Amino acid sequence: MTNFRFVCALIACCLLLAANAALADYEAGTAAFRSGNFELAAAEFQKFVAERPDEPQGYHMLGRALIFAGRPGDAVGPLRKAVELNPDDVPSRVYLGRAFDESNKPAECIAALNRLDIGSLPKQAQIQVYQRRGRSHAKLGNTGSAAVDLGRVADLKPGDARARFDYGKKLQDDAQLDAAIAAFERATSMDGSMTEWKEALVNALKIKGRGAEGEAKTAVYRRAEAVARSLVGSDSSYENLLLLAEVQLGGKNYESAVSTLQQAISKRAGDWHAHYYLGQAYGSLGRFNDAEAPLNDALTLASGQAERQVFDYLGFVLEKQKKFGEAIRCYERAGNAAGAARVRENQQIAADNKEADEHNATVDEIKKRLGELQEELDEITGGTKEPPRR
Known about the structure:
By secondary structure, the chain is mostly helical. The protein contains 19 helices and no strands. It has helices at 2-35, 38-51, 56-68, 72-85, 90-102, 106-114, 123-139, 143-156, 161-173, 177-190, 195-210, 214-234, 238-250, 254-267, 272-284, 288-301, 304-320, 324-334, 337-380. The radius of gyration is 40 Å and the shape is rod-shaped.
């Protein structure tokens, strides 16, 4: 009996020592984690789970330590084990989603986070979960779902202009243009110092303007012009001036576009775009002769498709001036066979009209001369049209 009691006491002592050793490992891991030594923390928690394999908290802390040590892929296994041992372990599910996110496994991240009741989490945790799930949706091309999650982030952070802007970008990726414009406008109204955001807003309005017609089209471009002017006011770079000129052209504000483009060219004369747009502005004003020089300047700088684009508009400008031969050559260089054929037809019509005009002028001259001769004849016959008497 004495021996049995001794054995039991010995077993209890061993268990107590093992428990104390495991507890010491857990405490050492916690201390290392708090001090930022995550590799050491992971090693201590690894020892703890080896000693206490049924303790979910050990796997949770091991997974966290591995994430903070920059080893998210290694963290997946322990965090999965923590959730397996305790299906109600919300923090472990949150960190499991993070491990998948940071190890570039978006589908697995979404699946893990979808199991959460996100609305029941603390506000900051909700924000992080929506951000991670939205990022994972974006990686998979699920732009609509990504926009929904980033919209929730923006709503949870109503004073955060960056969150609102990021939401707008994702809406635009999902072709929700009007909603994107509204988000951009709200972001820029919250923080007007971000030139990148204003540029995004102007470009979104340009896209909307291209798809509009008539007065609606002009109105959209005028909205864009107001933002672009603000952008130039804070940074009058060549790029911003060119952007302003583009929306001025779209909004039919051609005189202002001429001035803006001249400023842009003074800053950077080596880019074909500004010269080409200046030619378009002059052409839209009906100043076709003035349009030739900037278009020729653009030709010296453009190449490939851009060069063909310039040739095509130069052909239009020359056609308007009835410089038919030059216009035909430009259309041919642009690959615009229809334009060249139209000019040839107009050239023939003009030639026919010229011939007809010359014929009519000759007839008029003959009639005039006949009238003069008749007057001379009248004078010879004594001022009467009667034949002379014998």
